[in-house]
Structures are given as structure tokens and as C-alpha cells.
Amino acid sequence: MSRVLRNKSIGLNNDKCPIVMIVIWSVFVLFFQSKNSPLYVLNDWVDLNVFLTIGKSWANGLIPYRDLFEQKGPTLFFVFYLISKIKASYVMIYLVEVVFFSFSLFFLYKIARFYYEKLASLFFVFLCSVILTLTPYFDRGGSAEELAYPFIIYSIYLLFVFYHEEFVSDSQWLKLGLSFAWVFWSKYTLIGVFIAVIIGIVIDLMLQKNYRRMIEVILYTSLGFILLTSIVVVYFYFQGAIKSLYFAYFYSNIKLYPNDNGGTIIGKIVNAFIIFFNQLKKNEIVFMTMIIGSYQLVMNHHIFKNKGLMLNYFFALSSMIVTTFFGGKSYDYYLLSILPIMCVALLPLIKNFNQTQFTNFHLMISALLTLLMIIGINGRLTESKLFPNNQTISLDGRSTKPAQQIFSEIINKEKNPTLLNYGSIDMGLYQAADILPSNYYFQRVNISNEKMPQIMNEQKQVVEEQKVMFVVIRLPKKHKKEDIPEIIRNNYQLVKKHDQFFVKPWSYYLYQSNDSYHK
């Protein structure tokens, strides 16, 4: 029996089999880890709901930045635009996540294949999945960082190709340039790895005096970057949105969003590493992987046989840390952009498995145990349908529906309802009620009122003039009645209140305008 399992059970001699296994593995991992999957009632993460609202609005004729304000980049919104063209739902986002995650794991598998056989390389992929979906960094699924995984890992993969095969095709350099541009126009703080990989390889070729190849690398990566950038710029230019794109994506992110600590450039770089290590300490698995794995990478010449590969890998890692945390902000999910690079630190740990009689049977048992570990350390599983009365649905445990669903049922009883998400980031009611925003600042982003007063000025005007039929607002559970803005209490009637948990206990309020309420 063991001989059959060793030689024939899952047919790993077939080159397509690892790909199929990676896709199936991604389906299972994200089914438990992503709140977009059918295992969950909804994804209550505010950022994800912003992306979906923008994508759905774009698919229905509203142009990002020109008609709706948001700070993330157009290629990220384009993913949600395509999702909305098919079906604007959390499950569709989950399926797209599976595709992106599968590509990410495939490139990690290709990196491992430089050192190990197929079975050990697949085991490496399983372990990487633990790192890539860890709580609290993964944070419910659908982040810009998660959707950048395949592009980030592809750049690291090309680094390994360059030093192992000594040849990277022109089309691969072109794809690197396209990947660079895609991430730049998604969330430009994630570009550190691309800058480092390109600069590192160019310097290496220059030291080799291989000037022709050096020029080709610069030419094709630049061509890829310029090609996608031109498409973005031309599209928004003809939509009359180029100035709005500049203000929302560049100016507000550079000048208005970061922490203004007044530090020097060197000080901000040092602070970026401080933030990074503080984030690492939040999870023992990541911390030990980084420390022990990095030590093994340096001391064990099995992986970094070439000093150029080692130097450029750590250059890429350091560059990503700097660009990610340079602004001084420190959200848990920011670390996601660095985790794919850190996965390389797991490679030395696979060496012993490659040397033993690691069979298909062992691989299947390892996959099962790894999946159980992923499920066991998942901090979100108690928010799933397996626990129908959990606090993310209702604090008192008496409701089986969250505020978003309860409120949407009330809203959709009206003809042509309109909605404003007042004073906070998108709570998911636009999606739940299937309503497109009707005003520019349809939510409040994480920029202070002092730096960007026009957001709340417009929202207050919308409420005062009763331009929308419904207003949704949330406040911390322990609050006073007076904390609800007087402008809302004067112009709108309370329709429904619901308490539920999101990071902390909240009270959600749905108000209906006086004009429509008394009809």
C-alpha cells in the first residue's frame, strides 16, 4: 500500500498536478481565512467594502476620483470593477482571491523547485500559506496587500531565476515592469521590492560589465511600466479625472494621510524598521520565522550560494519595509506586503524533508495538519456561520442578522432609496442595500478634519438639506445620546438601532429623513 502511495497515488509526475493541488489548496485555505468566503455572513472590514463600493459604482458609470473620493489606486479598483461586472458579491471576491492566491503560491513553488523535489516544494507552499494568512495581518481578506501578493512574489522569483539560470527573457522583464506598474497604481507604498530587484540586478550586470543585458533590463522593465501607466493616465485624462486622480491618490496620501512627526528622511527610515519589528512581535510564528529563518539563510549556504542573491534579497526585504512604513502609519495589515518576501526564510527548514523518504502520503498528511493549524490559529473563525449568534452579528446574541442586513431590508422597502455612510469608513451598507453613493464624499476616510474639512462639510450639508433618504452612523457602544450629531437628530428620524462587534463593540443607527419618514 505504501509503495502505491509513494509512486502513483496522486500522480505528481504530471507537471500539471502541482498546479491543480495549489488551486485546490487555495480554495480550502481561503474558505476559512477570508471573510468573503461562503463560510461567513459578510465581510465587515471597512476597507474591503470601500473597494467594492467603488468598483460597483465604476461598473455603473461613476468614475473613481472624479465622482467618488477614495485614496487607493485605480488598478485595485479595476479588480473590483471586473468583479462587479460579473456579480458584485463577497463570494465573487473570494473566487478572485483564490485566483490571486494560487498564482502567489505557484511562484513560491517555482522558487522552491530551484532547491527541492516536487513533494518538498509543495510542503514549502503549505507552510507559506500559514504565514500569508496569519491573523491579525490578513484581516478578513481582500486587502490591497493581499491582491499584490502574486506581483510581489513574481519579482522575488525573477531574482532567483536571474542567479540560478543566469538568463531572464525579455518577456519576463516586461512582465516585471507591468507588475511594478500594477502595484504602483494599486498602492504605491508597496513598490520597494520592485525598485530593489531592478536596481540590484542592474548593478550586478554593470559589475559584470554586461552592459548590453543591463540596458535590456532597463528597457523592458521601463517599457512594461510605461505601457500600463500610459493606459491609466490616458483613461482618466479622457474621463476628465486626471486632476482628481492626482489629488486623491498622490497628494492626499503624501501630504494629508501620513503621521506628521517632522522627522528627517533618515529618521523616517529608522522609524520604519522600528514599526516593522514592533509588528513582528505581535505574532510569535512570524517573529521566529523571520529571526531563525534569516539566520539560517545567512549561515547556511544551501539557499544563498551566490552572494549577489543574498545581498539583493535582503535589499528587497529592507526596501519593502521602508516604503511600507515610511509614512509612520502602523496598521496590522500593512505587514502583509512583507510576508511574501519573508516566506523565503522558510526554505532552509525544508532541507531535512527533502532528504528523507517524503512520500505522497506524507504530503497529504502534512497538508491536513497544516490546514488544521491554519484553522486553529484563525482569529476570525468564531465570526463564521459555524457560530451563528456570534458578536459580529449581534452583541446580545438574539439576532441572526447583522446591522447591514437588517438595515438593508428596511431601506429596500422604499422606492429609489438613497444613502449616506456618515462620519466613518464604509460599513458595508451600500453593498448590503445595493445602493450606489449619491455624493462625492460618500464616507469619511482616515484623514483628520483639520487637514481635509471638506469631507465632513459636504456630509453635513447632505444631512442638513436631506439630500439622501437614509443615513447610517455608528458610535462606540458606551456613548451618550448627545454623541449623535444634532444635525442628524433634527433632520432625520431613528428607524433602527443594532449593536454588534467590529474590533470593538459598536451601536449602529439607521435614520430616515423627515420628508420621507412622514409619507
From TrEMBL:
DNA repair among keywords: no
Keyword terms: Membrane, Transmembrane, Transmembrane helix
Residues in Glycosyltransferase RgtA/B/C/D-like domain copies: 72-232
Organism lineage: Bacteria, Bacillati, Bacillota, Bacilli, Lactobacillales
Transmembrane segments: 90-109, 115-135, 184-205, 217-238, 285-303, 310-327, 333-350, 362-381
Protein name as it appears in the record: Glycosyltransferase RgtA/B/C/D-like domain-containing protein
Cited InterPro entries: RgtA/B/C-like
Any Pfam family: PMT_2
